[in-house]
Design a protein that fits this description.
The complex is a heterodimer of chains A (about 425) and B (about 80). Chain A is about 55% helix and about 10% strand. Chain A is mainly alpha-helical. In chain A, the strands form four sheets. Chain A has a three-stranded antiparallel sheet, with no helix packed on it. Chain A has a three-stranded antiparallel sheet with strand order 7-8-9, with no helix packed on it. In chain A, a hairpin with a 2-residue loop joins strand 8 and strand 9 (about 115-120). Chain A is globular. With about 80 residues, chain B is mainly alpha-helical. In chain B, helix 1 (about 1-45) runs antiparallel to helix 2 (about 50-80). The longest helix of chain B is centred in the first third of the chain and has 44 residues, at about 1-45. Chain B is rod-shaped, with a radius of gyration of 19 Å. The chains are: A mainly alpha (about 425), B mainly alpha (about 80). The interface between A and B is medium-sized, with 19 and 13 residues.
């Protein structure tokens, strides 16, 4: 019995073109709408990009729609939990949120400066920070220059005045946008893989189907094409669970950051997340390093002594540098992709401010570039997950390498 | 002289950061270009190895891009604070 390939139903060309055009205009329209407000201060693309990439205590969906997230602060031994909407104080003409101080039920007053929560009346030096008392009438600060304000020492009124020197900042355990994104990814992963595991149990001996069928090639890819070639067949299965987790976590987080209109999550673009992933790789490499591995680091075989003197510090440094480079590579790739896409959006708004017709014109080209960049970012999402997992597997393989008898370089007869 | 000092002081950081980012882009371009070039040459010599070469080329390009983006991140940090 021959299997005939399944032919897709022919999609009428006119209908397909109409759908593409509709999608195109749907992408152009919301960008123009959000850029049309406010002719007060000049639009700053840098500020918009930083706002979308940085973490925040609320999720900004569109326009005036913000979703508050819980703020959890540990200060002086007691926990303050409240919604971040308590800080909200309206929006300025750019649509950016303004903040006011809030006194929690424990009596401590907190302030939200550029999404960093501090005690009111102490902390950063800001030139517009007027408050020396806990309720400041003008807690709102002018929207641009947010980046300059992050540098200390820019203030006209340097106030190192802190009532209690020992209580600098509360420890911030809040569910911020990035934490929320991570929890979302974890929930997706748990749902996905528990369902796949159950299908494996239910369909023992049968061919996979459904979700199990979709994910199985990737699981086998990580095991057969990443873990086993790097670590070797005997020991690979000890590390495959970690490699699978890291691979899917990074891939799904990257994809989450690409979905528009849900608030712009940037989970893997945050150094805090990637440094933890890199630290895990470092810990596993160090713990599973056998004598052969450490021997190669402190006493590399096959090199003359003068070069050994130079090589050993480099090898010791590389133990720490390799996870650090893993961290930077992942963060930089993902953040750079987001910045490029946001820069195109900013370009449209920037030109649209001068004249609406110019905005539409630039919009058409910029949207095409943006769509192209989105496709590249889809590739980068998978690729960065693959590269991280591959390098982690290579480091594990190096650490657990058995001793192979090296051929001594033959000395030329004298 | 003071005017020049003030001008350079305010523009130095961000101007040099821009130049640095451009140099990082040149580095990435040269690196990935060489990888692509050798991969294409090898594919032309032996068309059967297309799949293997493609996978390895992409991995090597990702590694080289990582280093270039390292430079971009440093320039970004300099330019923004």
């Amino acid at each position: 019995m021959t299997l005939t390939p399944i032919q897709p139903a022919p999609f009428r060309p006119a209908l397909r073109m109409a759908c593409l055009l509709a999608l195109f205009f749907a992408l152009v329209f919301p960008v123009q709408a959000s850029g049309g407000e406010g002719d007060g201060e000049k639009f700053s693309p840098g500020d918009m990009i930083m706002h979308h990439i940085s973490d925040a205590h609320q999720i900004h969906i569109i326009g005036d729609l913000y979703i508050p997230l819980p703020v959890i602060l540990l200060h002086d031994g007691h926990l303050d939990v409240f919604s971040s909407s308590k800080f909200w104080n309206g929006t300025n003409e750019h649509g950016e949120l303004l903040f006011k101080p809030y006194t929690a039920s424990s009596g401590v007053t907190y302030e939200n400066h550029h999404e960093v929560i501090t005690l009111a009346g102490g902390g950063h030096n800001h030139n517009e920070h007027v408050a020396h008392s806990s309720d400041s009438a003008h807690a709102a600060h002018p929207a641009p220059d947010s980046l300059a304000n992050m540098t200390p020492g820019h203030g006209d009124v340097p106030h190192g005045e802190e009532e209690h020197a020992s209580h600098d900042h509360p420890i911030d355990f809040s569910i911020t946008k990035t934490v929320f994104g991570m929890l979302l990814v974890v929930c997706i992963m748990i749902l996905l893989f528990r369902s796949i595991a159950k299908s494996y149990l239910r369909r023992k001996g049968q061919a996979p189907s459904g979700l199990q069928n979709m994910i199985e090639p990737f699981i086998l890819f990580v095991r057969n094409d990443i873990a086993i070639p790097s670590i070797g067949e005997r020991k690979a299965d000890r590390y495959v669970p970690f490699l699978l987790t890291v691979f899917f976590f990074i891939w799904i987080s990257n994809l989450l950051g690409l979905i528009p209109f849900i608030g712009g999550f940037n989970v893997t673009g945050t150094m805090s997340v990637t440094i933890v992933l890199a630290t895990l790789v470092f810990i596993i490499t160090t713990v599973s390093g056998n004598a052969h591995y450490w021997g190669h680091i402190v006493w590399p075989p096959g090199v003359p002594l003068p070069i050994k003197v130079i090589l050993v510090p480099i090898e010791i440094l590389s133990i720490f540098m390799k996870p650090a480079v893993l961290m930077i590579r992942l963060t930089a790739n993902i953040t750079a992709g987001h910045i490029i896409i946001l820069a195109f959006v900013g370009l449209i708004i920037l030109f649209g401010q001068n004249s609406a017709a110019l905005g539409y014109g630039v919009g058409a080209g910029a949207v095409l570039f943006m769509v192209f960049m989105f496709f590249i970012e889809l590739l980068v999402a998978f690729l960065q997950a693959y590269v991280f997992t591959l390098l982690a597997a290579i480091y594990f393989g190096d650490a657990t390498q058995e001793h192979h008898h090296h051929e001594e370089p033959s000395h030329a007869s004298h | 002289m003071e005017f020049l000092t003030v001008l350079l002081d305010t523009m130095m950081n961000q101007g040099l950061a821009g130049i640095g980012a451009g140099l990082a882009a040149i580095g990435a371009g040269i690196g990935v270009g060489r990888i692509g070039g050798s991969a294409l040459e090898a594919m032309a010599r032996q068309p059967e190895s297309l799949g293997d070469l493609r996978a390895n080329m992409i991995v090597a390009a990702a590694l080289v891009e990582g280093v270039a983006l390292f430079g971009v991140i440093v320039c970004l940090l300099v330019a923004l604070g």
